[in-house]
Amino acid sequence: MTEKTNPSQITNINQQIDALKKQITEANAQIKKHIEQRDTLHDKVKKTRDEVNQLKTERDILNQKVKELKAQRDAVRVQVAPIMEEIKAIDEKIEALKKNLPRVSQRELQEEHAAIEWKIATTSLDLQDERRLIEQVKAIELQMSGYKKIDVQHKKIKVLITKRKVFDEQADVFHKELTETAKKSQDLHASLMEKVNAMKRDKTEADNLHQAFIAAKENNNLLYQQIRLLIGQSSGIRNQMRDQYTTRRKDEDIRRAQEEAKRKEEQSQRAVKEAAIKEKIGTEAREKLNRGEKVSWDEFAMMLGDNKDDDAKAQD
Fold first, then answer.
1. Of 261, 265, 241, which is closest to residue 253 (Cα–Cα)?
2. Of the candidates 200, 204, 187, which has an alpha carbon nearest to the alpha carbon of residue 55?
C-alpha cells in the first residue's frame, strides 16, 4: 500500500463513517418517534382498559338487576297460575249450574217475581189468594236460586280477575323495568365491545411500533459495528502510515549519518593530502634556500607553515 493511497483511503473511510452516523441519527429520530407513539398508545390502551372494566362493572350490575327483575316478574306470574286454575274451576261449576236452570230466563223470573210482590203489597186479597201468590213467589225464588248461585260464582270470578289484574300490572311493571334495564345493559355491552376492539387495534399498533423500534435498534447496532470496523481499518492505516513515517525517519537519519561520516572521512583524507603537499613544498623550499636558490612567496609561506607545525609537534 503506497503512501499516497493511505490518506485517500482514510478520507473514504471517514466519508463512510459520516454516512453511517447520518443513518444512525435518522434512525434514532425515528426510534424516538416510535417510542413516543408506542407509549402514547400504551397509555391509551391503559385508559381504555380502565373504561372497559368500569363498563363491565356497570353492565354486570345491570345484568344482576335484570336477573332480579326477571325473578320478581316470574314470581308474580307464578301467583297468577293458581288464580287462573280457580277461575277455570268456577267456570266449570257455572256450566254445571246452567244445566239445572229453568227454561225461563232470569230476567223474566225477576219481572214475574216483582209483579207478584207488587200485587201482594198493593192489592187487597183474601187469605186464599194471598197464600197462592206467596207460594208462586216461593216457586219463582226457587227457580231463581240457580241464577243467584251463578251470580255468586261470577262475582268470585270478578274478584279473582281483579286480583289477577293486580298481579299482571305488577308483572308488567317488572317486565317494563326489566326490558329497559336489559336495553341499557345491551347498549353498555355494545359500547364495551367497541372499546375492546379499539383497545385491540391500539395494542396491535403499539406492538408493531415496538417491533419497529427493536428492528431499528438492531439495525443501529449493525451500523455501529460497521463504524467500529471502519475505525479499526482507519486506525490500522494510520498506524501503518506512522510506521512508514518512522521507518522513513530512521532511514533518513542513517543516510544523513552515513553522509556525515563520509564527509568527515573525505575531509580527513583531504587534510592529510594537503599536509603532505605542504610538507613536500616546504621541504623543497628549504632545500632551495640551502642551495641559495630563490623561492616563491607561496613556497616560503608553506615552509614557514611547515616550521610552525614542527614547533607545534616539538611542544607537544
1. 261
2. 187
Q: What is the pLDDT of residues 139-162, one digit of tens each?
A: 776 677 777 888 888 899 999 999
Residue found by looking up cell 416510535 in the block: 34
**Three-class secondary structure of residue 291 per DSSP:** coil
User: What one-character DSSP code corresponds to residue 132?
Assistant: H
The 10 Å Cβ neighbour count of residue 125 is 13
Domain that holds residue 52: 5-246
- Dihedral sign (CA 84, 179, 54, 41): positive
C-alpha cell at 58: 356497570
CA distance 240 to 217: 34
Where on the phi/psi map is residue 181: left (φ > 0), alpha (ψ -120 to 50), or beta? alpha
The three cell numbers locating residue 301: 609561506
pLDDT in tens, 157-170: 999 999 989 989 99
Residue 168 makes CB contacts below 8 A (sequence gap 6+) with 80
**Residue that the C-alpha cell 607553515 belongs to:** 305
User: DSSP alpha helices (H): ranges in the chain?
Assistant: 5-98, 106-122, 127-290, 297-315
The total domain count for the chain is 1
**What are 221's three cell numbers?**
447496532
227 lies in some domain:
yes
Do the domain assignments include residue 285? no
Question: To the nearest 10°, the Cα dihedral for 202, 206, 212, 215?
Answer: -140
Residues 210 and 38: beta-carbon distance below 8 Å: yes
At 217, the amino acid letter reads K
Place of cell 471517514: 14
Q: How many CB atoms lie within 10 A of CB 72?
A: 17
Please report whether residue 67 resides in a domain: yes
Quote the Cα angle for 17-22-23, to 5°: 100
pTM over 0.70: no
